[in-house]
Structure formats: structure tokens, C-alpha cells
Amino acid sequence: MAEQRPDVAPSALSAAHQYCLRSSLRSDRLSDRTGQRRSSAQLGQHLNASTTSGRDTPLNQTGMEKRMADEQETTEKSTDAPAQHPTPLLDQLETGPWPSYVTGLKRLRDSKDKQYAPMMNDLLGQLEHSFTERLGFWKGGAVGVFGYGGGVIPRFSEVGDKFPASKEFHTLRVMPPAGYHYSTEFLRKICDIWEQHGSGLIALHGQSGDIMFQGCSTENVQKAFDALNEIGLDLGGAGPGLRSSTSCVGHARCEMSCYDEVRAHRTVINRLLDEMHRPGLPYKFKFKFSGCGNDCTNSVARSDCAVIGTWRDDMKVDQTEVKAYVAKAGRKYTIDHVIAMCPTRALSLNDDDTLEVDNRACVRCMHCLNVMPKALSPGDERGCSFLIGGKSALKTGAMMGVMVVPFMRLETDEDWAKFEAFAVKLIECFADNALEHERMGEMLDRIGLPAFLEMLGLDVDPNMVIHPRTSSYVRTDDFTDEANKYFERKKKAAVDAAE
User: Fold this and answer.
1) What are 212's strand-pairing partners?
2) Phi, psi (5° rounding) for residue 377?
3) Peptide bond between residue 467 and the one before it cis (omega within 30 degrees of 0)
4) Of 364, 286, 374, 279, which Cα lies nearest the Cα of 325?
5) CA 442 from centre of chain
6) Alpha helices of 117-217 — where are they, by DSSP H?
7) What is the pLDDT of residues 452-463, one digit of tens each?
8) Does 382 score more than 50 pLDDT?
9) CA distances (Å), origin 26, targets 6, 45, 184, 256, 342
């Protein structure tokens, strides 16, 4: 039997050796993470110091236990801060010529003083895992706030055991102000709220115009919504219902604006808010509002109802500014970049450098007005057009909006009441006639334009023709009669407007 040292109690020596061994194992595990292993010489010195120091007495056993507890607490703190996930595939996305979203995610991950840093670390880990496996690992679910049936996009991780901090990564869709008018103070407030309750990741804006607050746990969804609601924001649409709308900056800053886009936006959304917060439609429905044919909100191609600003009198021409433009740019440049670019050949440049416009042929494409904004501007009789059925590529392929209301004046309160009533009628028509998971354009394609116009109580107008018939096997003997009826309606409408 080995000789027992007389000045050390057996129990104290055993505890010291056990402590040293545990400390050494913990040190090795921590060193494996950092790549700096403790050398065997250091380990031996550590053992010798623990067993031969003057503190190895029964009187110092309490100090030994305190030291053991302190080091255990330090080790636990080190273990609580997970190491960063390696992201070799994501790193390659940062090597290209353009800024990468990966850089932004890493910046959020490296914000060690923020509560969302672990979530973003695990998010990057799962994204790297998806790139490696070439699969997505998100699934849906049911998450919401009190009183609302939409507005939250739930995302649960299928690999939450590997990446627990980001196992819930929900998105809040929040309606933006009409016209996207923000103050810097307001932007700071929404950033502070999302740093407190979410991941710090905000997208301005989604395809429907929403402010996308991305990355929130189920527990914090209600808290985040309450905080956003206190500063005047509300959830947008999600699911089979009315979606958030978007409107261009319009008459607040743009000289091409033909109606009050912000008022139109708020009129429709305020009237139909229940269709957004409590989805009950066959599928999603989007309104978008653009003040002119430039369509800065991309409404014709990406909304079920596009409201586009237009005018129906003659384009206004300042001949003095036309001559100044020609003198500065040159006749050849003006002809090549303005006159020849008109899709309907409605423009011609006279010998004295004045501009002649065939307003009956003008289709309001806005090209000439954009190139010569000082010389050309919209006419005085301004209003909006309604184009129905735009959508992206799902199911039947991408579709552009079909003209159903060529012109609607928006000046008096009566005009706005008519505008609101037409928007409500559109939603009711869609709710009553669309099939499940069918967009407005697909419904219109299925039932046909004549039946759709009859439902809305609209008269046929030549502006609704998408493309003339090319088949020679079509009777045209009644076309003249229908044309005469159309001109009579136009004449009567003009008389009524004059009175």
C-alpha cells in the first residue's frame, strides 16, 4: 500500500485529486473548441500544484471547494456561449461583386450584446445545412395574435434539435404607411422594437408592400405586435384574404401624379380591413395604386386590381421648353430617343423644332414625358383606370391586368364614393365566383370578360380589347351597330358631365 502523507486527510487528498482530474477534462474539452490544447507538462504542473501546495490541509479544504465552484461556474458560462457555426458555402456568396445578404446576417450574429445573436448564429448554421443538403428545412404551422386570422407567417425548423435558437423563426407582415412616408424617428422606433423582440432582421418592403419583420419566437409574436401597434402600425394580410396594398409616393413629390394615391390607398384598405385581418376569400387579392403609367408599384403585372393614373384630354406641351431641349440635345438625339421611341408614332418634330402630338393615338406610355419633363406633362382632366387580373407565374402563368374601367374621375366626394363602391363590388364578385386557390385573373380567364362585365354592371368599351381577333371565321355584320351604341353612350356621358 502506498505511504499516506500524515499532514493530509485521506478524504481531502481524494477530493483534491478528483477536482484536478475534472478540471483537466474540462480544460481539454474547452481547448478542443478553441484549438489550443493544454500541454501535458502544463497538466502535470497543475496536478503537482494541487497536491503539494501548502494549502493541502484540512483547514484549507473549504477554500479548495470554493475554487472548484468558481471554476465550474466559469466553465458553464463558457459553455453557454455556443461557438459560431462554420459556413464555408455561405462564405462563397460574399466573394462576388455585389453585396451579399450573408454579410448582414453575420453582422447580426456578431452583435454579442444583443439578445438575437444566438438566433442568427443558428440561422446561419441551418442555412449552411440547407446548402449542403440542397433541401429546405422549414415547415408551417399556426401562429397569430389575438383577434387576427392573418398577418403572421409561421416558420418552424425541422432541424431544431441541431439549431435550437432558431427553431422558431416567424415573420410579421406589417402594413406600411400609404406612399411609404417615414420619418427617421419612426424608423428608429421600429428597429428598437424588433431588436427587443425579434431577430433584428427587417425587409423594406415585401412584394405586397409589407414591412417584413423576419425572425421571431412564438412567445414574442404577441409582444412584438403590441409594441408595433402602440406606435400606430397594424398587421397586413396573409393567407386567402385581402393583402396589404402599396401606393407610390405620388402627388407628394411627383409631377406626373394624376390622382390622390394616398387617399385611394387608405379608402380601400380602411373599407375592406376585415377581409385582411379575418381572411375569408377563395385566395389572395391585391390592390396596388400608381399615379401614372410609369407604374412605380408594378401594379399591372403583380396585383389583382391595379389603379393607374391617367388623363383623357390632350397632353400639355410647352413649345419653348421643347426648343430648348432640342437645342441642347440636338435634333438627331431628340428624334432617336423621343420621336422614334413612341410606340404608336404619335409624335413628330416640326422643322421649327416644335413638337406635334397626335393625342388620339397616344397610349400614355410616359416615355416622352420622362425624357422631357419640362416640356411635356399630363393633361388637366385627370383620373384613374382600373386594370384587373395581374398576377405572377403560378398555375396558369404570368398575366397582365385587363382594362375594365378606362377612366374614373377622382375629385369630388361623390367620385370617391363611387370609387369605394367599385372596390367593394370587385371583392364581392371575387368572393362569390372564384374557385379555391384561384386568382382574379384566372377567374376572369375562366368565365370570360363579357360575363365579368355583366356581374359588375359595366358597358363594353373598345379600350378593353387585349388583342383583336385574327380568325377570319367571325361574323362582323353587327359590329357597326355596337360601335354606334358605344358612341351614343360616350356622347350622353359627356352631356351629363357638362351639366
Assistant:
1) 173, 203
2) -155, 160
3) no
4) 374
5) 24
6) 117-133, 184-197
7) 999 999 888 887
8) yes
9) 31, 16, 49, 70, 77
